[in-house]
């Protein structure tokens, strides 16, 4: 009697796994043309506001999330004059390959998932994310991880798309592979507050972008600020 072979049941990929794969495929295919003039012009509208917020002091550590082909890191390196420590993370190996061709060896590039950052807690002075946040499948968890790797008094700077009308956001979310949710200013502020971040500033940058800056406060300082708010009330 022939032995029966047991067929292992196939497990369906989770929503998170589908999102990660969609982003890997989408940006992997886009990597070779990502540095085209039109895309670079568009991306600069998101990157320049973030650059203006950074105090370039010797020894600071900056993490650029979803760094793509490294355009922002290249600009940070020039402005830091080799005296700052730069790290870039992206989920697409093809994007990182393009970044390695243009960046000096002292810039550390890592392939990884923003929801599980491969860095120690309290490591960075700034965590940047430009024109990518709408691709993260758990945006709350992404901000949680950003805060974890941030030093006390460090800043998270997120500049992401916003087209004013929910109907346009819905269409964009349906058509762009890997796009999860486009937030308005209030929704971004709420994500930061739920993670215990102090909102330093929010503003619209050019017509289609909102910048949100959050600061990680030390526990003692945070408690004092909460007491002051209660007294004002």
Please give a handful of descriptors for the protein shown.
single chain, disordered C terminus, alpha/beta, globular, 233 residues, 7 strands, 41% helix, Rossmann fold
CATH topology: Rossmann fold
Which residue ranges are poorly predicted, with pLDDT under 50 across at least 5 consecutive positions? Answer: 229-233
The SSE string, one letter per element, is: HHEHEHEEHEHHEEH
Query: How many domain regions?
Result: 1
Helix run count: 8
| Beta-strand percent range | 15-25%
Mean pLDDT: 90
Question: How would you summarize this macromolecular structure in one to three sentences?
Answer:
The chain has 233 residues and is of the alpha/beta class. It is built from eight helices and seven strands.
Describe this structure in words.
There is one protein chain. The protein is of the alpha/beta class and 233 residues long. It has a single domain, classed as Vaccinia Virus protein VP39 (Rossmann fold). Helices cover 41% and strands 21% of the residues. A seven-stranded mixed beta sheet has the order 3-2-1-4-5-7-6, sandwiched between helices. Strand 6 and strand 7 form a beta hairpin. The longest helix has 16 residues. The radius of gyration is 20 Å and the shape is globular. The N and C termini lie far apart (82 Å).
């Amino acid at each position: 009697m022939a032995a029966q072979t047991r067929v292992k049941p196939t497990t369906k990929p989770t929503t998170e796994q589908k999102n990660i794969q969609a982003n890997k495929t989408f940006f992997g295919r886009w990597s070779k043309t990502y540095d085209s003039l039109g895309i670079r012009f568009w991306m600069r509208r998101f990157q320049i506001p973030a650059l203006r917020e950074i105090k370039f002091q010797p020894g600071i550590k900056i993490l650029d999330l979803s760094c793509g082909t490294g355009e922002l890191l290249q600009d940070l390196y020039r402005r830091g004059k080799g005296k700052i420590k730069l790290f870039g993370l992206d989920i697409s190996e093809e994007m990182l390959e393009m970044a390695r061709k243009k960046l000096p060896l002292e810039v550390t590039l890592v392939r990884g998932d923003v929801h599980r950052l491969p860095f120690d807690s309290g490591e960075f002075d700034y965590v940047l994310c430009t024109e990518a946040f709408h691709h993260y499948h758990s945006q709350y968890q992404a901000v949680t991880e950003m805060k974890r790797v941030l030093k006390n008094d460090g800043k998270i700077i997120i500049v992401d798309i916003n087209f004013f009308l929910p109907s346009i956001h819905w269409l964009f979310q349906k058509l762009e592979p890997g796009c999860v949710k486009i937030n308005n200013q209030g929704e971004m502020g709420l994500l930061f507050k739920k993670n215990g971040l102090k909102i330093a500033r929010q503003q619209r940058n050019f017509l289609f972008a909102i910048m949100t800056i959050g600061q990680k406060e030390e526990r003692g300082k945070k408690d004092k600020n909460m007491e002051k708010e209660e007294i004002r009330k």
